[in-house]
Amino acid sequence: MRYAMAIDTKKCVGCGDCVVACQTENNVPHGYCRDWIVERVDGTYPSLSLEFRSERCNHCDNSPCVRCCPTGASHIEEGGIVSVTPHKCIGCGACIQSCPYDARYSHPDGYVDKCTFCLHRVQKGQKTACVDVCPTKCLHFGDLDDPNSDVSLAIKDRSWKVLAPEAGTKPQLYFLT
Amino acid sequence: MKTRRDFIKISTAGAGAAAISFKALGSKGFGLFESKTEGPVSDEDLTPYPTYCEVCFWKCAAWAYVDKNGTIRKVVGNKNDPHCNGRLCPRGTGGVGMVYDEDRLKTPLIRDTRKDGTQYFREATWDEALNKVADKMKEVKEKYGPEAFGLFNHGTPGGHFHHLLRAYGSESNAEPAFANCRGPRSSAYFSTFGAYVGSPECTDIRDTKCLVLIGSHLGENMHNSQVQEMSDAIDNGATIITVDPRFSTAAAHSNHWLPIKPSTDIALLMAWIHVLIYEGLYDKDYVEQYTFGLDYLKDHVKNMTPEWAYGITTIEPEEIRRTARAMADAAPAVIIHPGRHVVWYGDDTQRGRAMAILTALLGSWGKRGGLYFPEGVSVPAYPHPHFPEPKWTWKDWNAGRYPLATMGITTEALKASIPRYNYKHQLKAWLVAGTNLPLSMPDKPLFKEAADSVEFIAVMDTMPMDITGYADVIFPEATYLERYDVIRSAANREPNIALRMPAIEPKYDSKPGWWIAKQIGERLGLHDYFNYDDYSEVIDWQLKQLGTSLEEMKKIGVKKYPRKTGPLYLGDGEDYDFNTTTGKIELYSVDFADHGFDPIPNYTKHPEPPQNFYRLIYGRAPMHTFSRTSNNPHLSDLMSENSVWVNPKVADLWGLKNGQEVWLKNQDDAITSFPVKVRVTERIRWDSVYMVHGFGHKNKKLSRAFGKGAADTEMITNVAVDPIMGGTGMRGNFITFLTEDPALEEKEVKA
């Protein structure tokens, strides 16, 4: 099993609903977020292109954050979900430094926090909160090992890219272009 | 200069009230760092209560999930609701922030004067506040007649006060949603098709092959089901054509972006009509059977060629032809989107007419993928005596002007409040429910003069807003998640109703709008109009007339009904009688001709920015609704202030840097109260700047929103009034940059 997410940049309107839904679902404190929106503009008026990307932890296959964690707080859960166990975390921040995607933050309670792919929902067969709320249905989640999962179908006939492939982390967010 | 009604920052609200923490203080774990913040809760441990959203006018039905401690943890869309299909927008998802915003109005407040003459708000009991308003209503009735008590309203809470005022004898009401927003569209589509496009609009985006947006920024205005359907249309390979001087989100998702010179849309629309007619691309059978006035129209647009329009709009003639042909190829599954906030240049009803005429030529009114025939559920009124007949109403302010206005015009209500305008029918007191007038209306000096002229202002809101600073009495309203409210019934593909019930008890000493209206009514001897103890009785009675009950609706939230008015679309060649003078779709408006207006639209040249000035274009951001969400803790996290978008060429000329703070000054020397950050971006034309509406709050009680960004409405002092229906065109304002602090005397308006 290999959980992954595809994000359709041709449909995303950058509304930030994924961010709020994550905040309320996971009780992320105000001023912090586990997912966020990037707006990229290219060209000169009026020859322009615009891309919105809903970004979060890439749940990398080759995750530097897990490798560098001195206490084992950062670990891999089922389906390749990268997780943090708060009571094992010493808040050293090595993982924050090692992440090429800036996906982790220091929670005000002292530990490092990040996207969990809503493991608590996924374990019950639900989708992540961000996928379920997205008004444009531009987020697709599922098991890459299942050819009929939403994410497998989403990337099957579309061109896609991953972010910072040069980091060699084998990221699992696929941005449909 | 001090005036009788000084703006007061609310300084007593919240004194003694415990601070509310959104965090639960349970702890788990026992290691180096305990996770004090409660993590996610299983849905099975939460109780869902049905509601519909009040963060914007789309009113999506939802479930509020409450945990065992009585805290609303999240709000999730109702899957059976056609407004949202189970997916709320960011504002709906963040709506819970309205409840737990610690800056909320917490008790009734009354304006009082200290011995030294300064004014302040003091906390009051409900009895005292309600008596004060009821006594003033009695006094106004005796001195001037009940008609002199006016109502400004928006959204669901306004309805309860509309009922109160009708029972009291006044129909002197106006809401910014008409003359400051969608009014021209109503008049334009009604005069063409004899029908309104409604809310949600009856656009069949789901099945369209071509979606045309004239300055409509879907995706930035999160009109939920429409944004969802636009996404479906992209999946379906529909052609999207966006006309906008700004590279909007919708423009970025479009096949054709027409970066039009602002204020020239009618020229483009007429050129499109020219191409459809003179290239023979219009739906000939449809036009023959259903429309009136093709010959007049053909003659009228004879010289309105794409080449003619090119000189006006800066859109290449070939692109005009190409896009017209794309529409014709897709017809009748093509939507010329009617837009929503359409008060731009004062000839907005005529622009709406041009869009409606284009719709008719493409044969898309009443067709799949065009505009469908919506149907709603008629909710019976809870029994009450007839309303008394007022001696005059909002219509009388217009005194024969704006003949096609169908609702009160807010600027006319303001002028009727100012004695020097010498209106025959004057307002002496206001009730303001759920609308923040100083930030929602143009021409702030007019508002201030009006607010200072009336004898009395009562305001009901959930938050301390700019408008509450002008009040004599403030009622703290319970948020939509804490109250029963009217049954939602909006026309849609399938008729449906939705229930709003409290998920939790009202926090602090806030009360539901229905309760406040009823309490005032009882004090005025109007009990028979409020013949119930709790609003749930009204709802239950109404639901029983509709074959359901409060008990059932509490379980399902949304109920759908079969259509009674026939299919969604016109059958081929089906007979149809349109509710217009001619019984046909009027390409030539007989009504307009009778009133002395152009029966077919004409392009009018509008003023252009003087040297060193730029046209102010404003709009929405997807995570905010007007000025009401700026302080919401979830939504201010996403966007805490607006910026002024400046083209890099312009930024170079002025030496402006990204993120630099500037003050804006307009053509009438109005200056923004607060600085606003520059966003240097290619997404805006060099002759214009862009701002998101709803920022620059001046009420210091808004701990997150005060002084953040600038208010576009402060820059809108020039209003181009639509002679047809009184719309207030706001896009004829030009701004320039001040890079030094203008050191305004009155930055925070003080007590």
What does this structure look like?
- The complex is a heterodimer of chains A (177) and B (751).
- With 177 residues, chain A is an alpha+beta fold.
- Chain A has one domain (3-176): Alpha-Beta Plaits.
- Chain A is 20% helix and 25% strand.
- Chain A has helices at 17-26, 64-68, 94-98, 119-122, 129-133, 150-156, and strands at 3-8, 36-44, 47-55, 74-76, 82-84, 105-106, 112-113, 139-143, 160-161, 173-176.
- In chain A, the strands form four sheets. Chain A has a four-stranded mixed β-sheet. In chain A, strands 2-3 form a two-stranded antiparallel sheet. A two-stranded antiparallel sheet of chain A has the order 4-5.
- In chain A, strand 4 (74-76) and strand 5 form a beta hairpin.
- The mean pLDDT of chain A is 96.
- With 751 residues, chain B is an alpha/beta fold.
- Among the domains of chain B are: 192-374 and 579-594, Dimethylsulfoxide Reductase, domain 2 (3-Layer(aba) Sandwich); 614-738, Barwin-like endoglucanases (Beta Barrel), CATH 2.40.40.
- Chain B has 23 helices and 26 strands.
- In chain B, the strands form seven sheets. In chain B, strands 5-4-15-14-13-6-7 form a seven-stranded mixed β-sheet, with helices on one face. A six-stranded mixed β-barrel of chain B has the order 19-23-20-22-21-26.
- In chain B, strand 1 and strand 2 (61-66) form a beta hairpin.
- The longest helix of chain B is centred in the first third of the chain and has 19 residues, at 126-144.
- Chain B starts with 46 loop residues before the first strand and ends in a 13-residue tail after the last strand.
- Residues 11-31 of chain B have low confidence and may be disordered.
- Chains A and B meet through helix 1, strand 2 and strand 3 of A and strand 3, helix 6 and helix 22 of B.
